[in-house]
Structures are given as C-alpha cells and as structure tokens.
Write a structure and sequence with these properties.
The structure holds 3 protein chains of 3 kinds.
Chain A: H1 7-27, H2 32-58, E1 64-71, E2 74-79, H3 82-109, H4 114-133, H5 137-155, H6 161-193, H7 210-223, H8 235-238, H9 244-253, H10 255-271, H11 273-279, H12 283-302, H13 306-327, H14 330-361, H15 372-375, H16 377-391, H17 397-412, H18 415-441, H19 471-502
Antiparallel strand pairs in A: 1-2
Helix pairs in contact in A: 1-2, 1-4, 2-3, 3-4, 3-9, 3-14, 3-19, 4-5, 5-6, 5-10, 6-7, 9-10, 9-14, 10-13, 10-14, 12-13, 12-18, 13-14, 13-18, 14-16, 14-17, 14-19, 16-18, 16-19, 17-18, 17-19
Chain B: H1 2-10, H2 12-30, H3 34-56, H4 77-107, H5 112-129
Helix pairs in contact in B: 2-3, 3-4
Chain C: H1 6-24, H2 27-55, E1 57-61, E2 72-76, H3 77-104, H4 110-129, H5 133-152, H6 160-190, H7 195-201, H8 209-226, H9 235-241, H10 244-269, H11 275-301, H12 306-326, H13 330-361, H14 372-375, H15 377-391, H16 397-411, H17 415-441, H18 455-473, H19 476-490
Antiparallel strand pairs in C: 1-2
Helix pairs in contact in C: 1-2, 1-4, 2-3, 2-4, 3-4, 3-10, 3-13, 3-18, 3-19, 4-5, 4-10, 5-6, 5-10, 6-8, 6-9, 8-10, 9-10, 9-12, 10-12, 10-13, 11-12, 11-17, 12-13, 12-17, 13-15, 13-16, 13-18, 13-19, 15-17, 15-18, 16-17, 16-18
Classes of the chains: A mainly alpha, B mainly alpha, C mainly alpha.
C-alpha cells in the first residue's frame, strides 16, 4: 500500500481513529465548532482508512491483527474479509453522512448534551468497526456487546422518563438476548469445534446434527437481538425516543446492521451454506422469519407516527435477511448482503427525511403531513426515492436484494417464500408511498387547492413557498437517496465481490 | 434387641452430648433474650467439648504420665484440642457479652423482639423521610 | 532465613502487628503498621506462590515437629493462589482505609480497629495456609471473632451493626462448632488431624457411618461461614452495617477463604470419588447453587440499599461457587477458582465504590446515588465497570468467570445448568441497572454539594477496576493459575511423606 501505511496499520486505525476522535471530541467540549469539525474529520479519516483496506483487498492483499487472548485459546482477532469490508465501507461512509446531518439537526434543534452525543457516536463507530473486522466469534461478541453499551447513552439522550424507559427496554432486550442465547451458542460452538475462527465453508460439518443443529441455529438467530427478529424486536420501536440522527444511526449504520451482519457471518463462516442446506437446519427459523416479516409489515401499516412506522419497516426488512440466511443457499446469503447495503442507504434517507420534516414543520404524525411535499420538495423527493428502494423497485438498490433473495429461495426450493416477499413488498408500497403521494398531491392541512382552468395549470411547487429544513440536513438525505439509486448499478459488483467468500 | 440396647447405652457419652447440643441449639433459636442466647451457645459448645474429651477416654486408662506404673493411657490429644477450643469459646462468649452490653446501651433493651420493633420503626421513619 | 520461614511469617507478622497497633495509640501509626504488614503479606504470598508452583508443595513444620504429630503448613498451588487473593484485597482495602476509616470510626477506636483488621487478616491467611484440620478451626475462629468485632464497629454510624454482629456471632459460632464436631468424628475414625493424612486413611472407609456424619457436620459448618444459600441469613445485615472497608474486605476475602476450606475438605480430605460425596455434590450442591443464584438475585432486585443489594448479590455469587464445585471435574473446579479470584476483585471494587459514595453522601440508598454520575464521575465509572463485570460483559473478568462456568457445565452435558448460569447473570443486569440509571439519568437532589472522593480512595478503587478490565481482556494469567490450583486440589497425595502413608 501507500508509503508507510501498511494494511495492518490501516486495520488498527479503523478502531483507533474513532477512539481518538472520541477523546478529542471530549477535549473540545467547550468549543462547539471545533468539536463538530473533529467529528467530521474522524468520520472522513475513518472512511478513507476503510477505503484503503478495500482497495488493498481488491488488489489481493489482506490484513490481520492478533491481540491478547480474551479467554484461553481465543485471542481478540481482527481480519479483513469481503463481507466485513462491505459492511465497514457502508458504515464508515454513512457515518460521514450522518455526522453532517447530526451537526445540522442538533444545532437547529439546540439539543442538550451534544458532546456526549458525539463521543458516543464515535465510540459506537469504533465498536462497529470491531464487529465488521472481527476474525472470530469471540471478538465479534466482544464488540457486539460494547456496541450495545456505547449506544445506550444515545438512546437515553433526553433523560426524560420516556427516554429512561426506552433505555431499559433497549438494554434489557439486547443484553438479555445476547447473554441468554448468543453467548451459550458461542460457548456451545467452541466446545464442539475447539475453534471460533471464521472459516470459509463453516466448521460444524460432522460436529452436530439433527434437532441440535436446528437449536444451535435458533440460538444464534434469536441471540442476535440486534437483528430484531420477533418476538425480540421491542427495543427498536422503543429506541425511537432518541433524537432522529440516533435513529438513523441505529437503523442504518451501526446497531441493526451489526445484528444482521453477525447473522450473515455466522451463517456463512460458522455453519456454512452447504451444511445449512444439507441438514435442513433453517426450516423452522425460515417460518419464524417469514412471520416476523409479514407481522412487522402489518404493524407498520397501522402506525401513524412516522418514526415508529419506519422502525417497524426496519424490523420487516431485517427479517428479509434472516430469511435469506435461513434459506441456506448461496444466493440467499448474497441477497442478505446486498439487502444490508441497500436497506442502509434507503432507511438512513427515510430517517433523515423524517428528521428534516420534524425540524421544518414540527410534525411527527403521518396524518398531519399531507401537502408538505409542496413546501419541502427536496426532502419529499428523497423520501420517495428511498421508499422505492425499500420496496424494491428498479432502478434502486432494493431491487437487487429482492432479486437475489428470490433466486436464493428458488435455489433452495422454498418457492412459497417468494410469495412472502412479494406480499411484503406490496404491503410496503401501502405504508410508504401514500406519505409521499399525499405530500405532493394534497394541499396542506387546513388549505384547499383552488380549481385551475384546464390548460392553465401552474406548478404547486414553487420557489417562494419553500420551507425546507437546513441545508446540512437536506443535502445528506438527497445524497443518500441518490446513492441508493447508484447501488442499483453496483448491485452485481457487490455480489461478485462477496461471492468468492460464499462459494464452498 | 439387647445388642442394640447395650450398644446405645454403651455410648451414653454420645447421648449426653446430643442432649446438651440440642438443648443448646434450641435455646439459641427459641429464646429472645440475648443473654440467654449466649448461654445456649455456651451449652452447645460445651457439649462438643464433652464429646471430644469422652472420646479420648480409654477404659481403664490413666493420664498419660510416663511413670512406669501404668500401661494404658487415655488419648491426651483431645484434651489439648479442647483446651484450645475452650479458649475460643471463652473469647466468643466475651465478645458476645460485650456486644450485648453495647446493644443495651444503644437500644435500651436486650430482648430480640423489642430490638426488631425499634429497627422496624426506624426503617419506616427513614422511608418516610425520603 | 526469611524465605525459609515465609510460610509462617506471613501469617504471624500480621498477628504480631495486632498488639503493636493497640500500643500505637495514634491512628496514623497504627495504619502504617497495618499497611506495612499487609504489603509484606502480599509480597510474601507472591513469592510463596512462585515457590509452590516450582516445588509442587511447600511443607512447613511448626516448631520442627513432623506431621502428622506436629502442625504443618502445607502450601500448594491452590492455597497459595487463595493467599494472593486474600492479601491483595487486604492490601487494597488497607490503603483505601486511610481516609475512609476516620469517617466511620472515631479516632480513639481506630488503633483497635486496625488491631482487629490485623487479627482478621492473619486468621484468614492462617486458614488458607494450614495443613492441619484443627489448626484450620483455630484460625477460622481467629478470623471470625475479629470479623464480628469489625462488623460491630459500624455501630458508630448505625446501631444496627451491633445486632448484625450479634447474629453473625451466633451463626458463625454454631458453624465453627459444627465444624469441630465433624472433626471429632473424623478424628475418632482416623486418629489424625493432618488433612493429607486423613485423606489417605479414609480412602477405604467410604461406607462408614461415622465418616458420613463427620462429613455432614463439616460441610454444614463451613457452609455457614460461606453463606451457602439457606445458611446465609447473617450475611446481608453484616455486610450492610459494617464499615465500608470491612464490607469490602469481608466480601472479597472471607467467603473466599471459607470456599477454600470447603474445597480443601471436598477435594483433598474427602474426594468426589467417594459415593456419598458424589451424591451430595449432585443432589444437594447443584440444586442449592441454582436456587441461590435465582432467589438471591431476585431478592437483590428489590433492595433499596446498595450495600444490601451487593450483599445479596454476593449470596447469589456463592451459588455460582456451589455450581462450579458440584461439577466435580477439573473444568468446574478451574471455573470456581477463576470466579473466586474474579469475584474477589469485582465485588471488592464495587464495595469500595459504594464506600466512596458513603464517604461523600453519608448514605448508600439507591436514592442517594441520584445524579452522582456527574458529581463523582470516577467513582461511578468504577462502579459501572464493576457492575458490567458482574453482569458478565466481555472484556471484564466477570465474562471470563461465566465463560468457564458455562463451559464446565457443557463438559458435563448439563444443558439446563449452563442456561441457568447465563440467566442468573442476567438478573444482575436488572439490579445494577437500577443503581446505574439513578446515578446517570436522574438529577441529583437540589443544593447537594457532593464532590469526587479523595484520590487516596480512588487510587485503590481504580487499581481493582483496572485489574478487573486487564484480567478480563487477557485472562491467560488467572486461568492458567487457577488451573494449576485446581490440579493441585485434585491431586491430594502428591508429595506426601512416606511415613504418612497408610
């Protein structure tokens, strides 16, 4: 690599940079401009490092770091591999975007405790990088838990009763699932195989079979509470008590994505697709995921609070990935990975738009939002594009993930799952599109459109009527909306990038 | 039957110890007066001393003093052990009594139920104060 | 010379310092003497541990009398490991005490307090070092009697300390007496009191009723000192009302010493191969351990006093010890010993943190923790780390403990137990969560002028906290040490002199 920057150093820096950033942000507590600048700088530096690692990997290189053993024989181990690189790139790029957005949002809203907010962001980012580059399960578990803890202060940001309650649910569900299910699953795996390293093609073949294998698989799926599989999804809606940038961060950058990423890693490198399909391990979990998918979609339909609706939409979208993993086919996994990326760009846009709407109009209820598209055309445009991506309409990134997932379902012979996805996509049209449509086509609440004579229609969207949120908030949303269209063209490339790691 | 009878009578030292032991424990558990509790504790400890000492007794044996006139000696080790245990017992009693004196100063009573009632009243007051 | 007699010296030096403290009259001088003695013991225990690892067993004959007639101090990897725990926690508490003790005990009593501390400390080291069962009882009583007094010293701030100490005295004495009764039966049977010697002699007697009765009395006796679940009644009050330093010391060491005595009895004197012991381990210790974990944790959930909450948590943790013991394999024993060390560190650090809060606010109710996250950031972050460790978050020592406990349960194939272990540690999340939430998310009472605790208290607290993290990130040292100790416990006859054989 470039002069002086070895891959190992770059790998270490991905964890250190956010850490150093957190310290510096704390030091710059009094100088808000400097503090925000440091946040942005750390985010940019981090994404540069990750991009360097990505380029290094594309050039055929790799990097790994081995640290002290957490327990005997199990070191803290960092490693670059395709799925991790995809996740790390995604998270680090989106961190830059969300930092820009946060600066705009937090300043406009004059939020308290901003320094703590940025510190926790940075620490959570370091943990996310740890999750992404974990070379064995124990390292992944370590950073997974630390991520939960470091995002807790973000969830309870307002320190009100509601926030405290949200924090309790958040920590309670995430720590309970990981301690009750994930940890025993990890120790079980360790006692079976004597290793927790991520091995291509999995390592459980011949070590476990039958119902026990299915139980282990279920422990992993439920244990990864961050993947919000029903009935362990309550923390996600609860976490909506936090400021909107936090919601965006949880849903698109760090927590939720770390959850499904963990599942993908476990599916690919611990079980291995061939083992999963040979043992028919995922049969039960497939139905659980399908239920979670449909149920969350239906709940989302009934929510009037925009952030809550988006939260349930996330639960449904995450179930796409768990379903993909449960399908036990290579293309299902690929679909899961592409979904990870596409959903991140889509959902971060939706949340940033929700925040922008709140900033500009103070509205949180969907029923109050009609006509807003006319005064906030950029926000609503971005919202519409991102909605299309979540639904999976070409040319947006979401189209590819659904495509790959359906191929995966066909490959493994579970054709009924294709039906589930189609149903869910149709329902998601019903809960996402009306918002944008009513935003553009209906007049503002309390106003009426004067009938226009035919042939003399004027645009209802015009420069003088604009009441957009600050540029710092709208620009990132438009950018990610544009990116989620770009993902459509990158979809096959991402699939091609991760496929070598998946094929046995 | 006779055999069982003689063997249980033959171990009458055990029976005596068990009697003392159970009455000691019973006093500790049932009496509310702290001094009586200490007396019960003493009784309980003493029963164990008796048990040990009687175990060391060898029928027909004397104190193990090597004068040449006796052939059979009792085992001296239990005596030595119990000497230590008695010292421990005395220390325990002393501390127990000292505590009772302090409790009397602090609470004005040495009856367990009254002390509990006082503590409870205090706790309720604290709870109300918060 | 010193090296040769180190085994006895490190027990006797604190004991000799006890009267010195009385004569010192000035609290500072007494503190200096006591601290010097504990630091000496700390250094000594490290040296002894190294020696024991090299030599296998250090056998020191008191007064030159050869065992089994004379009293023997017998140090192997297991008890020298416990020596390190005891002297480490003792030293930390002693340094911490310089500023904490004057707040809770009036200055005329302080030299006497240090006297008792020294006696207690020396008693615990003695229990750990000795190879003679009756001598063990004597040291057990030295440490117990002094700890009754230490608990009662809390009367300066709360008179309930007196009744707590009295109950502790009653139950402690009953426990010790039970131990002696059991010993009497074993002595009748074997004619010896040297533990290694007893082990050899009872090897073929597993059917003897006397042996069973002796075993039962001994286990119940030690169980009372260890606060095994149904025998724990003295513990919550004693821990709550004792001075902060005493609570930290007792929580970190006294149950550990009792646990060591239990392990010594179960694994060296008796053996899990004896059919009745295997039965007890499986049908008594396992269910009791599980009950302790859950019942005590649930009770801890409802405590409004943080010290009492931690006390109940200690009882729950003693359930984990029982579980580890009941596995009766090298994995379970290693897990128990690892947890013994880790729990000593984390629980002492938690109690020291609470001590800092008591020092500043004068109270340790959950309500008095409100807003302390901002006012006492160092104390509270140490408390949070201690709490996370109790929950078993990775990168803390608690995680290491839990890992090995679950692993040992899986080795035995005991699924539900493995699950219960993690479920029990989860309860810790809820009771610590309450305190931490109060500290960070609730505003402090108005016009409270609480500031951070003095550095002399924070330094020992953070020494423990940092080791809690460091040994959690790299557990190589503790685990390999504990494994060596477990092997020493399971191989009782190694290095036994020839004349002691059957």
């Amino acid at each position: 690599m470039m002069n002086g920057l070895t891959p190992e150093l770059a790998l270490a820096l991905t964890l250190l940079l956010p850490g150093i950033g957190a310290v510096l942000i704390g030091a710059a507590d009094r100088f808000s401009v400097l503090r925000d600048a440091i946040s942005l700088l750390a985010a940019t530096a981090l994404s540069t490092m990750v991009l360097a690692l990505l380029l290094n990997h594309l050039a055929g290189g790799s990097a790994q770091i081995q640290l002290t053993p957490l327990v005997q024989g199990l070191p803290i181990f960092l490693l670059t591999e395709p799925i991790g690189l995809v996740f790390a790139t995604l998270a680090s790029v989106l961190w830059v975007v969300i930092t820009v957005y946060s600066i705009g949002y937090m300043r406009k809203n004059d939020e308290p405790r901003q320094t703590r907010f940025y510190i926790c962001f940075a620490i959570a980012m370091a943990c996310t990088m740890g999750v992404a580059f974990a070379g064995n399960l124990i390292t992944l578990f370590l950073f997974y838990e630390l991520l939960t803890l470091s995002t807790y202060p973000l969830v309870v940001h307002y320190e009100t009763d509601a926030a405290r309650h949200a924090g309790r649910v958040y920590l309670g569900v995430l720590l309970s699932t990981s301690i009750l299910f994930l940890l025993p699953a990890i120790i079980w795996t360790w006692s079976l195989t004597g290793t927790l390293d991520f091995v291509k093609g999995g390592m459980l073949t011949g070590k476990i079979e039958g119902p026990q294998a299915a139980l282990l698989f279920a422990l992993y799926l439920f244990g990864t509470g961050k993947a919000a599989l029903m009935p362990f999804h309550r923390w996600l809606p609860a976490a909506m008590a936090a400021p909107t940038p936090v919601s965006a961060f949880l849903h698109a950058v760090a927590v939720v994505k770390a959850g499904v990423f963990t599942l993908l890693k476990v599916g690919v490198y611990i079980f291995g697709t061939s083992f999963l399909s040979a043992m028919n391990v995922g049969e039960w979990m497939m139905w659980v995921s399908a239920f979670s998918l449909i149920a969350a979609t239906i709940v989302a339909l009934r929510k009037d609070d925009l952030k809550l609706r988006l939260a349930y939409s996330t639960i449904a979208q995450l179930a796409y990935v768990t379903l993909g993993v449960s399908l036990a086919s290579v293309m299902g996994m690929v679909g899961g990975i592409v979904q990870l990326v596409a959903h991140a760009f889509g959902k971060i846009t939706l949340f940033m738009c929700a925040g922008a709407i709140y900033l500009a109009s103070g509205k949180t209820k969907i029923s109050d939002m009609r006509g807003l598209g006319r005064v906030m055309p950029f926000t609503f445009g971005a919202f519409l594009l991102a909605s299309l991506s979540i639904i999976g309409v070409p040319p947006t990134g979401g189209a590819w993930s659904k495509w790959f997932l359906m191929i995966g379902a066909a490959e493994s012979g579970h054709l009924v799952m294709i039906g589930v996805w189609i149903l869910a996509s149709l329902l998601s049209i019903a809960y996402l599109i009306p918002l944008a449509a009513r935003g553009f086509f209906l007049p503002l609440t309390g106003q009426e459109d004067r009938p226009q004579p035919q042939g003399q229609e004027v645009s209802l969207i015009g420069k003088p009527g604009l009441q957009e949120a600050p540029l710092w908030c709208v620009a990132p949303a438009c950018l990610t909306a544009a990116l989620s269209v770009l993902i459509y063209f990158a979809g096959p490339a991402i699939a091609g990038f991760v496929l070598p790691a998946l094929r046995p | 039957m006779v055999n069982a009878f003689t063997s249980s009578i033959g171990h009458f030292n055990y029976w005596a110890s068990v009697l003392l032991m159970t009455s000691g424990i019973y006093i500790v558990l049932s009496r509310g007066n702290l001094i009586k509790k200490i007396i019960g504790l003493n009784l309980f400890q003493v029963s164990v001393f008796m048990l040990f000492i009687s175990m060391g007794k060898v029928t027909g044996g004397t104190a193990p003093i090597l004068t040449g006139r006796h052939e059979i000696f009792s085992n001296p080790l239990p005596h030595v052990l119990i000497l230590t245990a008695i010292v421990v017992g005395v220390a325990t009693t002393a501390i127990g009594l000292a505590l009772v004196v302090r409790i009397k100063y602090a609470y004005g009573t040495i009856e367990e139920d009254e002390i509990l009632a006082l503590d409870l009243a205090r706790e309720q007051m604290d709870a109300r104060a918060q | 010379m010193i090296r040769q007699h180190l085994a006895i010296l490190q027990v006797m030096l604190p004991m000799l310092c006890a009267p010195l403290c009385v004569f010192a009259r000035r609290p500072v001088i007494a503190w200096l003497i006591a601290t010097a003695a504990t630091l000496f013991a700390l250094a000594g225990s490290f040296i002894l541990f190294a020696q024991a690892l090299n030599a296998g067993v250090i056998s020191y004959h008191l007064g030159g009398w050869a065992p089994p007639w004379g009293i023997e101090f017998r140090l192997d990897a297991a008890n020298s490991f416990v020596l390190i725990i005891v002297s480490l926690v003792g030293a930390v508490c002693m340094i911490y005490g310089r500023d904490s003790i004057p707040r809770e005990i009036k200055s005329s009593d302080q030299p006497l307090f240090y006297t008792m501390m020294m006696l207690c400390f020396s008693g615990m080291l003695g229990v750990t070092s000795t190879g003679d069962a009756f001598n063990l009882f004597v040291f057990l009583e030295i440490f117990s009697l002094s700890s009754y007094v230490l608990v009662a010293m809390g009367a300066g701030s709360d008179r309930r300390a007196l009744t707590a100490a009295f109950t502790y005295l009653l139950l402690g004495t009953i426990g010790a007496t039970f131990f002696v009764i059991g010993l009497g039966f074993i002595y009748v049977l074997t004619g010896t009191l040297n533990m290694a010697d007893i082990a050899v002699r009872i090897a073929g007697m597993s059917g003897s009723g006397t042996l069973h009765v002796g075993f039962a009395f001994i286990i119940v006796g030690i169980g009372l000192k260890l606060a095994i679940f149904p025998l724990h009644l003295w513990l919550p009050n004693a821990y709550t009302h004792a001075p902060s330093v005493v609570t930290a010391l007792l929580a970190g060491t006294s149950t550990k010493v009792a646990l060591y005595a239990l392990l010594r009895m179960l694994y060296t004197v008796f053996s899990p191969d004896l059919p009745f012991e295997a039965l007890i381990l499986h049908y008594l210790f396992l269910p009791l351990g599980l009950t302790a974990v859950f019942v005590a944790s649930i009770i801890a959930l409802f405590q409004s006093d943080v010290k009492r909450l931690l006390a109940w948590s200690s009882i729950a943790q003693s359930g984990y010890f029982l579980l580890g013991v009941s596995f009766a394999n090298i994995g379970g024993l290693t897990a128990t010993l690892v947890h013994m060390f880790n729990h000593a560190i984390m629980k002492s650090s938690l109690f020291l943190a609470v001590g800092c809060v008591v020092y500043r606010t004068g109270s340790c109710s959950v309500a008095s923790f409100r807003g302390l996250g901002q006012k006492m950031p160092w104390t509270m972050s140490a408390f949070v780390i201690g709490g996370l460790s109790m929950i078993g978050v990775p990168a803390t020592v608690g995680f290491v403990s839990k890992w090995y406990l679950v692993l040992a349960a899986l080795e035995r194939g005991w699924w539900p137990v493995a699950f219960a272990i993690v479920a029990g540690s989860l309860l810790a999340l809820f009771y610590f969560g309450r305190v931490i939430e109060a500290a960070y998310l609730q505003p402090s009472p108005e016009n409270s002028a609480v500031t951070e605790a003095p550095v002399s208290m924070l330094a020992p607290l953070w020494a423990l906290t940092i080791s809690c993290l460091a040994l959690g990130i790299n557990s190589e040292l503790t685990v390999s040490t504990a494994r060596a100790a477990a092997e020493a416990l399971l191989a009782p006859h190694a290095g036994l002199p020839a004349h002691m054989g059957p």
